[in-house]
Design a protein that fits this description.
The protein is α+β, with helices and mostly antiparallel strands. It has a domain at 197-280. It has helices at 34-45, 59-65, 99-102, 130-145, 162-168, 211-219, 270-278; strands at residues 4-12, 20-28, 70-77, 80-88, 113-121, 150-155, 172-179, 183-191, 197-207, 223-229, 242-250. An eight-stranded mixed sheet has the order 1-2-3-4-5-6-8-7. β7 (172-179) and β8 (183-191) form a beta hairpin. The longest helix has 16 residues, at 130-145. The radius of gyration is 20 Å and the shape is globular. The protein starts with a strand and ends with a helix.
């Protein structure tokens, strides 16, 4: 039995009846839990409002997460698996799963990339911040390991549930591009060794569904840091109901301000900002 990582009390939703309080535990899963993991994944993916939101993993790929290529955290209630979060250590040359390649990390940094991959929470147990709790435990585990400190994840721009959870976990949106057979995905990132700070006065709000403007800001060196409601613009909650907040990172060690031949101050460019952000 793996050691207990966390425990507490959560609320279970019961259609047609009062919600009830139940004890839960969070632990590290083993290969013997693979059937339960696959069953919960199927339960989630079959009931998504859009199949574009989440790419299900194959039996063999999920098995890698439970073995030498990853770690899977699981939430149990009365011996039932009700949620899990996958951590994956991609191969250096894996262009699909090593997201450091997408972020143009230098080659020597690619062995230190870890992904927060699949996260699933049973519908009866949503609203308990289980995804956020598992993210925090996953990041704490990576800090303990000390070998994988460039942490990435992907999320659909339409996944209005998981985007704020990732941002609240300390990630920022670093890129927006097509992944996994032409599906648009945010690539989120954080450096566990060197957290970001941001320049004052460089904050821009963009509608969550305005992808073109977001891509333009990302190319200029901005990153997405928060998600906020736009107001009651529609009774149906969609991506159009939210804004993304973009900020300009402040390098920890900015390029020295220097004089050029015309005695004009030189300030760091957007490419230099991105270099300080990722290449450490």
């Amino acid at each position: 039995m793996q050691p207990l990582l966390s425990h507490g009390v959560l609320t279970k939703k019961q259609p047609g009846a009062k919600s009830c309080k139940l004890n839960y535990i969070i632990t590290t899963l083993e290969e013997k839990h693979l059937p339960e993991v696959m069953h919960l994944q199927k339960c989630i993916t079959q009931n998504l409002p859009s199949q574009k939101l989440l790419k299900p993993f194959s039996h063999e790929f999920m098995k890698q997460h439970l073995g030498h290529r990853g770690i899977v955290l699981g939430v149990f209630v009365e011996a039932q698996l009700v949620a899990f979060r996958c951590i994956y250590f991609p191969a250096v040359e894996d262009k699909e799963w090593n997201l450091g390649i997408d972020l143009k990390l230098p080659e020597e940094k690619l062995p230190h990339v870890a992904n927060l991959q699949m996260v699933c929470v049973h519908p009866d147990f949503r609203g308990n911040a289980l995804a956020l709790k598992m993210n925090r435990i996953a990041l704490a585990r990576l800090r303990e390991i000390k070998t994988h400190y460039h942490v990435c994840a992907t999320v659909s721009p339409d996944n209005i549930w998981n985007i704020p959870v990732l941002l609240a976990s300390g990630f920022c949106i670093a890129r927006l591009k097509k992944k996994y057979r032409d599906k648009m995905r945010y690539i989120v990132y954080q450096n566990l060794l060197k957290p970001m700070s941001f320049q004052l006065g460089h904050t821009i709000k963009v509608p969550l569904d305005d992808l073109d403007t977001q891509i333009g800001l990302l190319r200029k060196g901005y990153v997405g840091t928060h998600m906020a409601k736009r107001g009651n613009i529609s009774p149906k909650v969609t991506a159009a109901s939210f804004n993304l907040i973009f900020q300009l990172p402040l390098p920890k060690r900015p390029s020295p301000v220097r004089w050029n031949m015309l005695h004009v101050w030189h300030l760091p460019s957007s490419s230099e900002i991105r270099q300080h952000l990722f290449l450490r």
